[in-house]
Amino acid sequence: ALERGELEVYYQPQVSCVTRKFKGVEALIRWHHPELGLISPAKFIPIAEQTGLIFPIGEWVLQTACRQNKIWQEQGWPPMRIGVNLSLRQFQKDNLVEKVQAVLLETGLAPEYLELEITESIAMKEKRHIIKILSSLRAMGIHIAIDDFGTEYSSLNYLKHLPVDRLKIDMSFIQGIEEDPKDAAITRTIISLAKNIGLEVIAEGVENEQQFVFLQQHGCNEVQGYYFSPPLPLVAVTELLAEKYSD
Ligand code: C2E
Ligand code: MG
Ligand code: MG
């Protein structure tokens, strides 16, 4: 797929709860299979992880995302951050920090405009090693986010020591906000937790105004979800940027 140019990066806007304007985007990979059509990363990323193909694929996504973000800046859009998902295996390889550094140098993107997303399950493995890598990345000025927060180990004792910048509340809680008081309570609690320990917080999977208003009222910083925009191909997201962007 990589060789045949069947992979594409889509971009999903991240929106400020205060101004409803674009604050950033998350890069999400897509595979256009010639016969099977569009294949979800949830299907092929786990296989790429098993086979080791996640290394070239992950590097390609990182490069594409950083280059595109730099292009937007050169086109005169106010600078924004781009989120890139990383797999556990990319963390287990020794050269992650050097690879990321090389991509930033090559694309000319300043480190503060890159956010790397890791899941809790990554964060909880080989803790000392992960903390060391995250510290090096953050020392370079890169932001770190914990993806799907609340779905796995969520060790608060460990979170305390993790060098990260923000939590991404998993969409399963957001989607229950209206019907399930427990989901609403958990969402509120994660927002307070983040704020009380000095982290930023973004909610994933926001699909309607009620969910958005709830998050806004409880002080969530940003949201991401179909209510504002699904992940879009480059041309479409750039058009949306033109319509909705300001700082
Ligand atoms: P994720 O990083 O948690 O990404 C969020 C997923 O939620 C995306 O699915 C996005 O399309 C979907 N989503 C966004 N807003 C809504 C909404 O309002 N409602 C619903 N129901 N879904 C929403 P997607 O693009 O299929 O990606 C699935 C997962 O695949 C990602 O979850 C991430 O873990 C992984 N992934 C995607 N791209 C990459 C990549 O480049 N590298 C790695 N390692 N993993 C990736
Ligand atoms: Mg993500
Ligand atoms: Mg997520």
Using brief descriptors, characterize the structure shown.
binds ligand C2E, 247 residues, alpha/beta, eight-stranded mixed beta barrel, binds magnesium ion
3D structure, described in words:
It contains eleven helices and nine strands. With 247 residues, it is an alpha/beta fold. Strands 1-2-4-5-6-7-8-9 form an eight-stranded mixed barrel, surrounded by five helices. 33% of the residues are buried. The mean pLDDT is 94. One magnesium ion binds next to loops.
Low-confidence stretches: none
Order of helices and strands: EEEHHEHHEHHEHEHHEHEH
Radius of gyration, whole Å: 17 Å
Fraction of residues in β-strands: 15-25%
| Sheet/helix structural class | alpha/beta
Q: Which ligands are bound?
A: ligand C2E, magnesium ion
Main sheet record? 8 strands, mixed, barrel
Distance, first to last CA: 37 Å
Strand order of the largest sheet: 1-2-4-5-6-7-8-9
What fraction, in percent, of the residue positions are helical? 40-55%
Would you report the number of β strands?
9
Rounded mean pLDDT score:
94
Shape: globular
Q: Figure out the total of helices.
A: 11
Brief synopsis:
This protein has 247 residues and is an alpha/beta fold.
In terms of topology, how is this protein built?
Layout: E1 7-16, E2 22-33, E3 37-39, H1 41-51, H2 54-74, E4 81-85, H3 88-92, H4 96-107, E5 114-119, H5 120-123, H6 127-139, E6 143-149, H7 156-159, E7 166-169, H8 171-174, H9 181-196, E8 200-204, H10 209-217, E9 222-224, H11 234-244
Helix pairs in contact: 2-4
